[in-house]
Amino acid sequence: MPIKQQKQPEYMRLLPPESIRTIARLEFLARQPMEGTIAGRHRSPHKGFSSEFAEHRQYVRGDDLRLLDWRVFARTDRYYVKEFNEETNLRATILLDASTSMAYAGDLAFAVDGKPLSKLDYSRRMAAMLTYLLIHQQDATALVSFDHEIRRYLPARSQPLQLRRILEHINELETGEETDISSIFHEIAERIPKRGLVIVISDLFDDPEAIVKALHHFRYRNHELVIFHVMAEEEITFPLSSFSNFHDLEGMIDDLPLDPNSLRVQYVKQVSEFIDHIEKSCGRMEAEYVPVNTTSNINEVLAGYIERRQRSKSGA
Q: Residues 6 or more apart from 234 whose CB is under 8 A from it?
């Protein structure tokens, strides 16, 4: 009897074999102490028993004698015990922008099956790869999709089933209405229960001052921040030359017939200032800013970022 080959779920298109091969060699470690629920690979703000030495303290009655440091005793004739940093799992929350502006797909964008990816298509593949990597590490991962409101909030879980839940949702996700990034970020900052990692994947098309204030809210709550700022090449360099009819994806203004040559210098200047403001603000609040151009290969973008992160953490 012939064996019928099982059809691969539609959502697995977000994780092609080459992406999984890329992820398999990576490790995503937190840079600041995390509060998790199971023993893991990330440093905790609490002291416990692990391999990472924290400090000495003077022995008090009832301490475990196995933790006495006999070398220190030999030098000082005093009893000291060794304390270690407890290791824990990571709680990560991925914020995925699905506002109308994320529908833009320039002609120069990275293509899959010959079709240039929109910013949302590009971002959902990034979100899928990060989710796969984190859950593979047994790290609890949450997903929030949003436009002017929260579209879906999948609370953090570390079970393999969570990967399927997240992939199914982002595979079906369509761009919605105009964005309201700052209010969404303030709301999510209050809803995440413990310090953890917050990953933002967005074009950040909103009032930059309001966005920066909202990002500060995450830092105030002791979350580590990584910002993947996703933009298309055309949005950055404005390479258009012929008279065109410009359409506002978020519907804030009517279509405008314009000559790109008359706008290019001022447009590029304002976009450059916008990007520079966000990047410098992230630096001041010790948030990682990762510029992402949709012309780039997604696997190379993520692998390059995580490898740089690992080298930075190890001091290499």
A: 106, 107, 108, 240
The model's pLDDT over 128-161, given as tens digits with 9 standing for 90+, comes to 999 999 999 989 999 999 999 999 999 998 888 9
Residue 14, domain member (yes or no): no
* Residue 185 and residue 300 in one domain: yes
Domain of residue 82 covers: 42-87
Query: Both tokens of residue 68?
Result: 């006495």
End-to-end CA distance of the chain: 57
Least confident of 29-43, 164-178, 199-213, 236-250: 29-43
pLDDT in tens, 250-260: 555 556 666 56
Q: Mark whether 68 and 175 lie in a shared domain.
A: no
More confident residue, 160 or 264: 160
Q: What's the CA gap between 289 and 92, in Å, rounded?
A: 17
- CATH number for position 138: 3.40.50.410
Domain count, the chain: 2
Closest to 105 measured CA to CA, from 175, 44, 173: 175
